[in-house]
Amino acid sequence: MAPKKENSYDPARILELLWRVDAKPSRTGLSVDAIVDAAIELADANGLESVSMRNVAEHLGVGAMSLYTHVPGREELADLMIDRARADLYSHVDEPSSVVGGWRPAMRFVAQRNWALYQRHSWLLEAEGARPVLGPHTNDKYEAEVRPLDGIGLGDVEIDSVLTLVLTHVSGTARALAGVTRVKEQSGMSDAQWWAATAPILGRVMDRERFPVSSRVGTAAATSYDAASDPVHAYRFGLECILDGVEALMSRGRPADRSCASE
């Protein structure tokens, strides 16, 4: 049996790259920033799968080996891309908490900014992993997004949990929208064409007596969406439900009381 390949991924080295620790200018003008910007341009145009060290080098007009002086490999490059993509999410760290109307409009603002981010850089949905990318822009983002929830009656863990719930909902519905778009492109069929092709068979096999509730609800939803699903509606509807739930949570007393009740 062949020996297991050692993982060369170094999280400490990634942190140094993210924060540009001991970064030195290159005599050729090549830099981490230039490499990351080129990789993002490729991913925006052709998807994350198009980002390889060779392709990035060709995009920059340099030799592939010259990139490794600055970025160890594609995995590290992906983390750098994620952090860089978040750089312009907010004009300043207090932008979300400055939204008029309190925490609820502020969290709508946070959700909308993240939703728009995924529309600009859909490759983020593939690149983001289970472990956070702890770069400067990601930390600025987190600070900006928890500030509207501070001082409104939530505990610290609750603040993090509420933000996580909102962001997970945004990424989930953004992923669904990307999937709908991809299916349309790959199939060459619009939703209306798909319904027209499937309706005759569905009319024969979908017994309303066997599926009384689902047939009624499914018909109403499909008529409303004019499609099999509507991720944009799901995003908006789900966000309001989440915010309603946060209000209900805060009405249940102090954080310590809620913690005891949930155990």
Provide the helix percentage: 55-70%
Summarize model confidence as the mean pLDDT.
92
Distance between the termini: 48 Å
Q: Into how many domains do the coordinates divide?
A: 2
| Low-pLDDT segments | 1-5
What's the CATH C level of the largest domain? Mainly Alpha
Strand content: under 5%
Write down the overall geometry: flat
Order of helices and strands: HHHHHHHHHHHHH
Structural features, described:
The protein is mainly α. It has two domains: 11-85, Arc Repressor Mutant, subunit A, CATH 1.10.10.60; 96-188 and 230-262, Tetracycline Repressor, domain 2 (Orthogonal Bundle), CATH 1.10.357.10. Helix content is 64%, strand content 0%. The chain has helices at residues 11-18, 32-46, 53-60, 64-67, 74-85, 103-120, 124-127, 136-146, 156-187, 191-205, 212-225, 231-250, 255-262. Helix 2 packs across helix 3, helix 6 (103-120) packs parallel to helix 9 and helix 9 runs antiparallel to helix 12 (231-250).
Brief descriptors of the model:
263 residues; mainly alpha; Arc Repressor Mutant, subunit A; Tetracycline Repressor, domain 2; 64% helix; disordered N terminus
Question: What's the short version?
Answer:
The protein has 263 residues and is an all-alpha fold. The chain is built from 13 helices and no strands.
Write the layout of secondary structure elements.
Layout: H1 11-18, H2 32-46, H3 53-60, H4 64-67, H5 74-85, H6 103-120, H7 124-127, H8 136-146, H9 156-187, H10 191-205, H11 212-225, H12 231-250, H13 255-262
Helix pairs in contact: 2-3, 2-5, 6-9, 9-12
